[in-house]
Specification:
By secondary structure, the chain is mainly alpha-helical. It folds into 2 domains: about 10-70; about 95-153, no CATH class. Helix content is about 85%, strand content about 0%. It is built from 6 helices and no strands. The protein has helices spanning about 1-40, 45-70, 80-95, 100-105, 110-125, 125-145. Helix 1 (about 1-40) runs antiparallel to helix 2 (about 45-70). The model has no long low-confidence stretch (mean pLDDT about 80).
């Protein structure tokens, strides 16, 4: 299944790499043709202005069509996804360190920046990942001993 998906993505990317420059060339030559055809009727500066205005109107029309054809984002989310999210949030809330959870609620901006920096450090460096994992394991063991055995574990 992943091979088929990979092949479709590769084909789509290759097609886009070929088609996009061709479309840009066609649009550029169409603009030049419009300009040159208008220079026989209008002065060059006015022909350039009319060509640019026609391009802007064409872009606005394409954006309007794209907006109208896009599916509405006002559809309600699926109930099953929210149920899993609520269950996961509840599970994390039960297992979170109360001091850390309170700090994150009091300082959400600092908590977001801290988690981002820790995630970058863990993703960038194997040594940092090992240090963070060891610190977390030690904290988890100490917290487990402090809270005592749980009935649902």
């Amino acid at each position: 299944m992943f091979q088929r998906l990979k092949k479709q993505v590769e084909t789509g990317a290759l097609s886009a790499l070929i088609i996009i420059p061709l479309v840009l060339c066609v649009v550029a030559f169409l603009g030049l043709a419009c300009y040159f055809s208008l220079t026989s009727i209008l002065p060059p500066s006015l022909a350039a202005l009319v060509t640019a205005a026609a391009g802007i109107v064409l872009i606005a029309f394409v954006l309007l069509l794209a907006r109208l054809s896009a599916p509405s984002s006002k559809k309600p989310p699926k109930a099953g996804v929210e149920d899993y999210a609520d269950d996961f949030e509840r599970l994390l809330g039960e297992r979170a360190d109360p001091l850390l959870a309170r700090w994150a609620k009091e300082h959400p901006d600092r908590a977001a920046v801290t988690s981002l920096l820790l995630g970058l450090a863990a993703g960038y460096s194997r040594a940092a990942r090992r240090v963070l994992l060891d610190a977390w394991l030690r904290h988890a063991e100490a917290e487990t001993r402090r809270r005592g055995p749980r009935a649902d574990d």
